Fold this protein.
Amino acid sequence: MTHLLIESDANPRVKRWKRLAADARFLRREGALLIEGIHLAEVVLEHPDVKVSAVILSGGRSTNEAAGLADKLADAKGAKVYVLSDRLYDSISPVENGVGIMCEVEIPEVPSDDAWRSLDALYLDGVQDSGNAGTLIRSAAAAGVRVVITSPGAACLWTPKVLRAGMGAHFSVMIIEGCPVRQLRERYAGRLLAADARGGENLFLAPDYTARGPICWMMGAEGPGLSDEALAATDERYWIPIAEGVESLNVAAAAAVCLFDSSRRRLLRDAGTP
C-alpha cells in the first residue's frame, strides 16, 4: 500500500486539516471532520456508509496496528494514506499525545424529516459543553434512541472534542443541528417531554409515558436548564427524584436517567410485564 509523505507546514492539505481540527464553522462549510485514534477509526471502518477521504499517520509514532488499520481503510473506503512527521502530525491532531492515526471523514448528510420525525429523539436546547454533548449522543445511542437534534447556539456536534466524548456513537444516530424549538414542534410527529427539576411529574412514579407513540426528551444546558420557549413547547414535564443533600444532576446524567427509563418501560411493556 502506497503511503504519501508530507513534510511541509505549507502543504495545502496540512493547512486544511488544521482548520478542520480547530474551526467548527470551517468544518461545517467543508462538510468534513477529523477523527483521531484507533477506536474511532475502527468505528468508521465498520460503517460502510461513512466516507473517508484521507488517513493521516504519524511517521515516528504510529503503531503497526495503526498502519494496518490505515491500509484497511484505504482498501475499504478508497482513502489515501498520508505520513507526516511527528511534529507536523501534532500540529494538526486535536488530541495531546495521540496514538498516531487520524482520518478525514465526510459529515453524514442531514436526514429528511420523514426519516426521523416518527422516531424517539433527544433534543439539546442550548447545550454548549463539548464533553456533555458527546456523552449525550453516546447515551442516546446506547438507549436505542437514533435521533439527536440541537437548537441554534448549541455546540457543534462534529468537533473533535464532541466526537471523542461520543466514542463513535455519532455514526449510529441521525443528527440534525440548529433546529429551533418552534420548528421542532412543527416537524416532529411525537410528543415533547421536558426533564425539568422545577416541576411536573415524578419520573419514576408516572404512568407509562412511552405507550402513546414516539417521544423526544428535551434537555437544557447546565445552569439555566431548558429555555422558556422550550418549556412552553413541551407536552409533559418530569422531574427526577434524587436523595436529600444532592443539589442536582448534570445534563448528561439526567438525560441518561430519562433515556434509560424510557427504554426500560418499553422493554417491560413488550415483555407483557405490568
